[in-house]
Amino acid sequence: MPELELRHLRAVRTIAEEGSVTRAAARLGLTQPALSAQLRTVERLVGGTLFDRSPNGCVPTDLGKQVLGTARLVLDEITQLVAATKPGRNGPLVVGGVPMLFFAHFVENLRKLVSEVRADAQSSSAEVVDQLLAGQIHVAMFEYFDGMQSRELRGIELRKLVTEPQFVAVSEHDPLAHQDEIDLAQLASHDWVTPPAEQMSNRLHLIRACADAGFTPRLTHHTNEAGMARGLVANGAVSLASAPSRTGDGIVIRRLRGMPLMTDLYVATRRESPVAGRAHEVFACAADAYQSVLDRNPDYRRWWDAHPEAHPEIP
To answer: Which of 30, 39, 250, 259 could form a disulfide with 234 if both were Cys (CB 3.0 to 4.6 A apart)?
Structure first.
């Protein structure tokens, strides 16, 4: 007779956070059939269905909400127990984040606060937050991701750095490259380069924006390697680009008309860490690092100066 295990509780929590068995399986490093089997085991043990499938994904049933609440309590206790055995205020400051143009500058700025800093980059924002909650990193830089609103960030000080418009990268030989701005609908016939689905923070946002523009994006190419992505774009594909991205090497960076895609960037600090009580200074380090890349894209610099509401805490 199977018994309820921590992996089963993690499965339930992750499905609820991701709203999808497929995305939850990818995040946990499992196949979808393996995760579905774990879910069926939990449902047999508790005697009922935990999730209903709807147009919005997997939605917890009343029983599912009860099990989810218990799962979170138990897993939080385990996380705190594990974190208690790790260095807190002593030892190196471990900084996690997803690839961003200003991340290296951020790490260097943090060296002004503590003598020893280690960086630990991840491929998705969800992974960064998981590491932060587990106490494996102390400071995190990440972007909003689908399912983030369901995370319970206990013991974490979270601050929004900036709401950043997404630009688009196209080949310098594309007729659209001669426009100052591109309407999203003009990209309906292009192949897109994106990160793998389970690592793409704004996947649903992109799909919804394209639907509003009257088409379904052809998400053809998948890579997290910047050089490969730029090569694919230079040869005719398109991709989203962070606002401070620079034109060159066969591609041009253009703004999207109406700015239909916006991304929130966050800085998070564990309250028990080598920078405990210094979250404001950590944020200042991040703000300075972000400002260091603004002039890479003059078009974005002009937008930045005209929209202080997008960065109210950064001059």
So the answer is: 250
